[in-house]
Amino acid sequence: MQIKWWHIVLIVIYVVNLAVLDYFVFLKKTPPSVVTNIIEQKIIPTSILTPTSVPVNTQTPTFTPAVSKPRPKIRNVSYLPISTSGSTQSNDWVSLAGTDFYFDTKDYLGLVEIYFETNIKLLNGNGIVFVRLYNDTHGVGVQGSEVQSNLQKDTAVISGKVSFYQGRNLIKVQAKSLTADTAIFTSGRLKIVTEN
Questions:
Q1: Alpha carbons 149 and 119: distance in angstroms, whole number
Q2: What is the pLDDT of residue 51?
Q3: What are the residues whose beta carbons fall under 8 Å from the beta carbon of 180, sequence distance 6 or more?
Q4: Which of 17, 18, 102, 123 has its C-alpha lying 20 to 30 A from 139's C-alpha?
Q5: Separation between Cα atoms, residue 29 and residue 83, nearest integer Å
Q6: Which of 97, 99, 115, 87 is nearest to 175 (CA)?
Q7: Domains of the chain (ranges plus CATH)?
Q8: pLDDT tens digits, residue range 130-184?
Q9: 10-20: string of b/e by CB count within 10 Å (b at 16+)?
Q10: Which band of pLDDT confidence, cut at 50, 70 and 90, is reported for residue 47?
């Protein structure tokens, strides 16, 4: 292969470039602050460096968080019937056969209140008939469930608010008569009010 004159020119240019590069990169190091000042003076025009008045918004932006309105609760009423009737002439509380049922407040989501609604009467209208719910699991009368009547005709009577123990409880209907007259429990049910 024959070397031509322009090959020699390229080699010389290459060597000169390496020499210049070595000189500026490795031998002559300029402090960074001087380089920065030179760049700032040459690149940044003086009109930009002079302070000018810029309008400033002095009001603080206010953010109003989005508030979702709570969904109104809907009140529901359901009934749990007590299917069996019964009677007694006893002056003490007697559990009426066939009136037992299990009740658990956890079965009713959003439970607000419970009432005991009954139809009761006295056979001859002499004295007073008493009826209540009895918690057989705990051996106590259900608080607020007691109702009474002194009428011979079948009468609808509603208790105040009834309070049940938590958990699954065996409930029975109990009745008693103030006198020897027959106290009759015709029918009954629980009125259960929930809100969801």
A1: 9
A2: 54
A3: 89, 127
A4: 123
A5: 105
A6: 87
A7: 5-49 (no CATH), 75-195 (2.60.120.1340)
A8: 999 999 999 999 999 999 999 999 999 999 999 999 999 999 999 999 998 999 9
A9: eeeeeeeeeee
A10: low
Structure tokens at 119: 């139809």
| 35 has pLDDT over 50 | no
Q: Are 191 and 79 in contact (CB under 8 A)?
A: yes
Q: pTM score > 0.70 for this model?
A: no
- pLDDT (tens digit, 9 = 90+) per residue, 80-134? 999 899 999 999 999 999 999 999 999 999 999 999 999 999 999 889 999 999 9
Both tokens of 27, joined, read 């031998």
- Which residues are CB-contacts of 126 (< 8 A; sequence separation ≥ 6)? 179, 181
